């Protein structure tokens, strides 16, 4: 997939772009199957809601399951990422946010880069988030909401809140913007929310302000987010780095392929092994 | 205001209709002022969120504040209500749901009539809810979501849940539909959510399934809902009725007037007296 000049300009202006129909129904079914397989592997990479039971997110599936390993090197994700950030990209972070029907919780308003800046000493925001809709996304199942163009403000004002309470993965609530800041920003930067069918891909900037509401609908909202970072922009932790499921260690530039994921899934036997 | 034949047919089919621009900016400002005055009157008619502090709803303002007394007899609300339900209407219940920015909570999926049937022995669903948008309503500040046409199913399956925990006002969570029921209903009845500028009025059926998400936006979402019931359909409690702020005692048919609310506000002196 190649982004048009118009889409590149739109990304610069708005901080995000959406491309519909990137993955087929068959591929999405394979991804869902692979997700179901991967979450049988227990560990700290599985994040639950406050109830301690409902799954909120799973990290680093690309290090455990062959389908996700192939997904992150798919030309359809990696190609546009290279156009947006530059060549020599690797996976800084991989997560699937699994927002359940009837109560999957909100994600606080935040910017992504300040977390990686503070926790991992990532030098610059030369990275991009690539979000794949694994479910149809409507206004009713807790879509991501962006403040259009807010990435252009940088992220100098975002910092970890006193009393941040979440574990090493650092939930956005620990970096949430103040109500005053948000009210001011929302007066300038329109709230907007890309919707679309499963298979849509949204590329968004690590400094765009975003959040999402709980899911009150009967429909799940699984969102797969790969963060590609420049190899030359790898974190330089001052001491012990965060675990590998949060901060990719292998900064070797990825090589894209053009294979279909459904083919891959058909050859997958050892689930999550 | 007079509803067209087309709007009446739409109400029968969908269970709701929306009319934009019913109240002017000046009138809305007067209503907001009156609300601020009325909530200074403390009592059980003020409902808070689970934090025990943030206001969630206020009941029966029309019994305390002259502006709201005038609002419920305004021809603009009462006229269409008579068209939808028939003549000889009175106020069964009046509430303002005050959904705060950054966290005003959800309202569970429910139907209204079963509560009045069970708690108050209201004989039939010959009533109508008239909701006035006191703020602009967008997809971002927790709009009411309807299952289009679900009022036509009746409400035979809705009943109070075991362990219902809320006080006499009976929060919808105590009457929420099961996930299975909702999944089934949402497969047949489209989820839809009227939006619009402050001053929009939505008329909706007491048996339509509806709910709303929390408000994650910087914008409030105050929604004023008057339930008009037929005098001939007044509750017939078997014992002690619920308090008057929840169940209107005066079933005398209301007489509509065509006055502007801003005029009224200007003559209002004794706030909440």
Automatic annotation (TrEMBL), chains A, B:
This is Ectoine hydroxylase. Pfam families: PhyH (PF05721). It comes from Streptomyces echinatus. It comes from the Bacteria. Residues 162-174 have a biased composition (Basic and acidic residues). The keyword Cell membrane does not apply. Keywords: Oxidoreductase. Its EC number is 1.14.11.-. Coiled coil: none annotated. Residues 153-175 are annotated as: Disordered. GO terms for molecular function: 2-oxoglutarate-dependent dioxygenase activity; iron ion binding. InterPro entries: Phytyl_CoA_dOase-like (IPR008775).
